[in-house]
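hey so i finally got around to running both of the ones u sent me last week. sorry it took forever, my laptop kept dying halfway thru and i had to restart like 3 times lol. anyway pasting them below in the order u listed, first the sequence line then the structure token line for each. didnt double check formatting much so if smth looks off just lmk and ill redo it

first one:
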Amino acid sequence: METSAVKWQRSKVRDSTTNIQSILTVNRYGFKNVVTPGDIITAHPSIWPFARVFADYYHSFARPLPRSIDAEDPSKSLKIDAVFVFHDPRDWALDTQIILDILLSCQGVLGTYSSKNNNPALPNRGFQQDGQPTIYFSNPDLWWAAAYHLPRLGQGGFREALEGVWAAVTGGSKMGVQLQKKIIGKPFHDTYAFAEKKLELHRPLILGDKAALPLKRVYMIGDNPESDIKGGNDYRSPIGSEWYSVLVRSGVFRGGEPAWKPKAIVEDVWDAVRWGLKSSGWKPPSG
């Protein structure tokens, strides 16, 4: 499982990543006080009684909570101000339970339950209308390529599972309830805009004076039609650069008709680079 929580100035943030590397990453983003589900389950084992099999794992990195969960005095209880799912969770059950507790809480205070939940007079039937924290997902991919010969479920799979539980608890769309969330990553615009800005900053290091020329074309190479290729096809550059999507067969996509049509389909990244050089009029490397 993967989960963490952080404090940024006055705000605590809970993120779905339990390993030390993820905590350090969150710290580098400027958050000061990280809380993971591993921290929570270690301090309060009864919050999810089926996690005992992972106890040794959680104890290997768990840290003391900044506040405990105090059901009798919510003013003293642990408060979460944002939920971040940075990576593919390892323990879906524990993460789902804790995220659900936060989203059903009053103002993100663990151990509470909002009186506005299931109120038909309120937007979203009262759910997520009582100061609960926003939940952010960093990657919408349903599938990703791993060592196994078939694609494996990614963070998008966890989000779909969480939304299914949310619908079962709240009544879901049939009751006019949605899981209010923010999804970042491919194929969404902000990710491609960020990449383009990075390319603009990096060009002078490679091209020197020639970097003054406008960025004409960007090649989006990826193995997932639903994220990589769709995002490259949909992106509209504010500086006017063309985005060409190139699909490789060495990952999630292995053949057939892709859901989103790329400029080219090649075997692997090396072939994609060669195709890009050729289409740009550059002479590809020999060999």
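and the second one:
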Amino acid sequence: MPATKVPNTRPKDANFEQKLIDGGIYPYGYEFRGGRQLPLPPEWEEINRRLAQRRPSFSPSGFSEGGYREFTRADARATSEDEVKYHVLPAMLKAMGVPDGGEQNIWFTNIDPIVAGVSRPRPDFYYGAQPDQIHPDVRNDEQLSRHITPSSRTTLPVVPNFSLEVKGPDGSAAGVLRQACNNGAVGARAVHSLEAYGQDQPIYNNNVCAISSTYHSGVLKMYGHSVAQPDGPGTRPEYYMHQLNCWGMTGDKDTFLKGATAFKNAIDLAEEYRDAAIARANGVRRTIDRGEEGMGGDGTEAGS
């Protein structure tokens, strides 16, 4: 008899979180044996400062009440996850003034899972880079593309290091956290893989390079994701998730403005992370190209 195919574990499954942990992806709040906590990224205080940085478009006196009321009304009337996805989320992003460029409900079918047997991400909303920002030889590298290109629809944004997951009123807070944990780890690996392009020995510094967020029952939560290699070169990387902050978005306008400010600042910060990684990888590729141009077909210097 043919072997029975075992379906991938999904975030709502009870063993999803343990599979992530077994594969080196550690969720917010995880403690190692003996009570040792996940190590904080070295730039943690600076990230929180950046998230709270004021934006000129977001002042209580200049903020329109209309968009905020539309959002809170949609949230109060939502009774299912689909209603949150298709009514509450758009109203919230509109009230925030979030720029176009994000994608919704895209299966990351081209991404190799970090952990075998775990379902691929399908974030409700994600931001990434335009594909043409990346040198074609970098973007089409067979191994790297399985880390940075989410879909076979190759015009979609790549290096998906900012994501948002939502749940309906009856949805599981634990489930949405697991989704965010997986999304963020995939985004952090994408940035780190670009940073490591052309390196003999990748550098693991535990710096945040991806941000995930969740929205559930009126509360927006945000997390930073980093990659480390605590056991030294050649050992398995580990992915850490830390909560940055949370905001009760339906509570009052001032709290909404704080959450919206952090959300937009996080989008900008994630863009900085991936743009720096892309610039480095593109620079390495151009150096390789120049070296190849200076060599003859037999590997000797041209003209010799």
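quick thing i noticed on the 2nd:
Residues 30 and 36 are 9 Å apart (CA to CA).
anyway thats it, ttyl
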